[in-house]
Design a protein that fits this description.
The chain is globular, with a radius of gyration of 23 Å. The chain is about 25% helix and about 25% strand. The strands form 5 sheets. Strands 1-4-5-6-7-8-9-23-24 form a 9-stranded mixed β-barrel, surrounded by 4 helices. Strands 13-15-16-22-18-19 form a 6-stranded antiparallel β-sheet. The chain has a 4-stranded antiparallel β-sheet with strand order 14-17-21-20, with no helix packed on it. It is α/β, with parallel strands linked by helices and about 525 residues long. α8 runs parallel beside α9.
């Protein structure tokens, strides 16, 4: 009885595998009383103290508290990723000798409540609330969209928090938080994760995972599909070997352009798939959109529209479900060439090797973000063996302004690709409609185990292939394992739902064996 059934089922059918609690906006406030405090969200509902969210501009009752968030996690059979507040608000200076040190202690209390034994202080409180069994915490995100990289800012707070975590919770993954694209986007490529800037005298702190944010219109989102193609080269030029792996959250700032926003996001997603040795997670920010409310969050392109009685899925929902089901295990280098009928265009391709119905296949994805059609040819190296087309599907619409709504929920969806596919040895040619995503499944005459014996590529090696910069065909030693590629989802500003893509045969077998 905690959650609306149709919205819960929409999340469960999407296939989440972890939950981030709370969302980053919960910490963005100048006044401490206007920030999320987990201790105010537990206990009887009538005794919980709410707060005014400066980030959202509304009152938060805390009726959906920490235990309810963890319960949602449990019902969805997910892992938990915790966000913790470090003492700043994302822009103001840190007070390391007061607030930040108190928050470090508070983080340890939070972890004890979530995962401590039943006989610990906070574990006993959790047990009295009805859940004696500890929850598993898989990762912690330190802060949210941090900008203060001064000597007494985020780097020093990060050092204080990580020392406590490594001392008491050495197996928890730590994800460090960066800024927003357009403001702080370049520091990931010009520093060793936590930079020394502006006369900083501290030693730079290397970190394993770095969290970046992109909030832009759909055309800018589409243009960023190559943003990690030369990551290792550009980052190592300045930082040597101190380049972290990346978690990227993105948000398309256009609620009313469903098709073009979804296709733009498809470009970004296959760019991440192509660079799976860099990008470990993708985070679409907007999940639910109440069609009756208009505020700054409702200007974001969501996955799910809803009103008081109905639910509809956006183009992004269908696209991400399709790409998730065809992720594969290893990337395949491809060369895309062709002709597009419009000057304003972004188009790209990606391919992976995986299994379907017990047989090895190549999942080929091609995206055309353009108001005109495109005639394209995709070349796959001969060493992948002979292949044939199993099937192909497309997401597109004749009207670029098409939108799925609760009244007309099926205007945009995945359909069989009716356009002819021409296969000539190891080249596949087809025509892409305006603003479209095409996925082609190709059968191959090799076993999946054959690909695990091939070395991973050099991290400086060019892997992307798109029409603007066509590189030579990459050699056969160009596999990137994509088993760890994740997709994040935010559930408002309070909870972030995460998705571990379930198409990995090795992951599935291990779960069944338990």
């Amino acid at each position: 009885g905690l959650f609306r059934k149709d919205l819960f089922e929409a999340l469960r059918s999407y296939g989440p595998s972890f939950v981030r609690i709370p969302g980053g906006d919960s910490f963005k406030a100048v006044s401490p009383q206007n920030r999320w405090d987990w201790k105010n969200t537990i206990g009887p509902f009538e005794k919980r103290v709410g707060y005014f969210s400066e980030a959202n501009g509304r009152w938060v009752t805390n009726g959906f508290g920490l235990l309810e968030m963890l319960t949602l996690n449990e019902l969805l059979e997910t892992e938990t990723v915790l966000s913790v507040y470090l003492g700043g608000d994302g822009s103001s200076k840190y007070n390391l000798f007061n607030d930040t040190r108190l928050q470090a202690r508070d983080m340890m209390d939070l972890l004890e409540f979530c995962s401590g034994p039943e006989d610990s202080f906070w574990g006993e409180i959790r047990s009295q609330a009805g859940h004696p069994k500890p929850f598993k915490i898989s990762a912690i995100i330190l802060g949210s969209q941090e900008h203060d990289m001064s000597p007494t800012g985020y780097p020093l707070a990060h050092k204080l928090f990580t020392s406590e975590l490594k001392k008491h919770y050495p197996n928890v993954k730590i994800i460090s938080s960066g800024g927003v694209y357009g403001l702080e986007s370049d520091k990931i490529r010009s520093s060793s994760c936590l930079p020394c800037v502006g006369g900083c005298t501290l030693n730079p702190q290397p970190c394993n995972y770095w969290y970046e944010s992109v909030y832009e219109d759909q055309t800018t989102i589409a243009s960023l599909h190559t943003m990690y193609d030369d990551y290792w080269t550009s980052c190592r030029t300045i930082s040597g070997d101190s380049c972290p792996l990346v978690y990227l959250e993105f948000c398309t700032l256009n609620r009313d352009s469903d098709l073009t926003s979804g296709v733009a996001e498809a470009l970004l997603l296959i760019g991440a798939e192509r660079n799976a040795d860099v990008v470990k997670g993708i985070a679409p920010v907007a999940i639910f959109n109440n069609v009756h409310r208009r505020n700054r969050y409702n200007s974001r392109h969501p996955l799910i529209y809803f009103n008081e009685s109905a639910v509809a899925f956006s183009s992004s929902y269908h696209i991400q479900k399709l790409l998730k089901s065809t992720l594969g295990v290893f990337t395949v280098p491809v060369h895309l060439s062709g002709h597009v009928t419009s000057e304003q265009n972004y188009w790209s391709s990606s391919a992976t090797v995986g299994e379907e119905d017990g047989k090895s296949v190549i999942f080929l994805k091609i995206v055309n973000y353009s108001p005109g059609s495109a005639e394209v040819t995709v070349r796959i190296a001969e060493e992948y063996g002979d292949f044939s087309v199993v099937r192909s599907v497309v997401l597109s619409h004749d009207d670029p302004d098409a939108v799925n709504t609760v009244a007309v929920p099926d205007m945009i969806g995945v359909k069989p690709h009716g356009t002819r596919l021409s296969l000539d040895k190891h080249e596949l040619s087809t025509e892409l409609g305006a603003y479209s995503l095409v996925v082609v499944v190709l059968s191959i005459d090799k076993e999946l185990s054959d690909f695990t014996k091939i070395e991973s590529p050099s991290q400086n090696q060019q892997r992307s292939t798109h029409s603007h910069l066509p590189p030579p065909l990459v050699s056969k030693r160009s596999f990137i394992n994509v088993n760890n590629l994740l997709v994040f989802l935010f559930l408002s500003s309070v909870v972030m739902i995460g998705i571990r893509l379930k198409c990995f045969p090795n992951k599935v077998r291990r779960r069944k064996a338990r």
